[in-house]
Design brief:
The chain folds into two domains: about 1-150, 3-Layer(aba) Sandwich (Alpha/beta knot); about 165-225, Trp Operon Repressor, Chain A (Orthogonal Bundle). The chain has helices spanning about 20-25, 65-75, 95-100, 120-125, 140-150, 165, 200-220, 220-225; strands at about 1-5, 30-35, 50, 60, 80-90, 105-110, 130, 185, 190. α1 (about 20-25) links the parallel β1 (about 1-5) and β2 (about 30-35). By secondary structure, it is an alpha/beta fold.
């Protein structure tokens, strides 16, 4: 899978993909993340990519032409399954979206900055708009990193044990159950007996009930959706 990210602050994306699971995914050739500096593709002097917004008001807007130049250059090189714009007014990014995206071959992500991007770019090129929550960030880079991480770990072969992702929160519509490791007794607190019994059926039953209970307590809205 290849993910191209368009940014005006590419340095913000250096660390998220240089460590841990994302690093291994790239080393294994399962994931390719290419970050493009928009300033390297602008036709304007001094690397200009933004200008004042029509109608007045605070905040600069990313100009359409630099984005169009780079988007069209990338689209001439390959076909993209999605051209994504990270924006607070996009659809909320969820696990099912990550699952669907993990099956794609090529994805482009546009990171907004300043007050956002010219609306005409959204209308002409963007096929999917995503938000990671009801809040505003300084730019789309951190949100893009979240999406890439959530999607990248689902690509077959990325995780050493692929079944691990299947038991994550939200995969089945519920929160994941509590997890424990050694020692079985720690500071007067014990691991539930069901997890120590060695019976896979009883262990699975305990995990299901614990998952249901945790969901009822913390995210009852998920149960209403099931």
């Amino acid at each position: 899978m290849r993910i191209d990210i368009i940014s005006v602050v590419p340095a913000l994306l250096e660390s998220p993909f240089a460590h841990s699971i994302m690093k291994r995914a790239q080393q294994r050739g399962l994931l390719e993340v290419v970050v493009h500096n928009l300033r390297d593709h602008t036709p304007y002097k001094h690397g200009q990519v933004d200008d004042y917004q029509f109608g007045g008001g605070a905040g600069m807007v990313m100009m359409p032409e630099p984005l169009a130049v780079l988007i069209e250059k990338l689209q001439a090189e390959r076909t993209y399954d999605e051209v994504i714009f990270m924006t607070p007014d996009g659809a909320t990014f969820e696990q099912q979206t990550a699952n669907r995206m993990s099956l794609m071959q090529n994805v482009m992500i546009i990171c907004g900055h300043y007050k956002g991007i010219d609306e005409r770019i959204r209308q002409r090129y963007v096929s999917l708009e995503l938000s990671i929550g009801d809040f505003v960030l300084s730019g789309g880079e951190l949100a893009a990193a979240v999406v890439v991480d959530a999607v990248g770990r689902l690509i077959p072969g990325v995780l050493n044990d692929e079944t691990s992702a299947l038991s994550d929160s939200f995969q089945d519509g519920y929160l994941a159950p509590p997890v424990y490791t050694r020692p079985a007794e720690w500071r007067g607190m014990s691991v539930p007996e069901a997890l120590l019994c060695g019976d896979p059926k009883k262990i699975e039953e305990w995990r299901h009930q614990a998952s249901l209970q945790r969901t009822e307590q913390r995210r009852p809205d998920l149960l209403a959706d099931n």
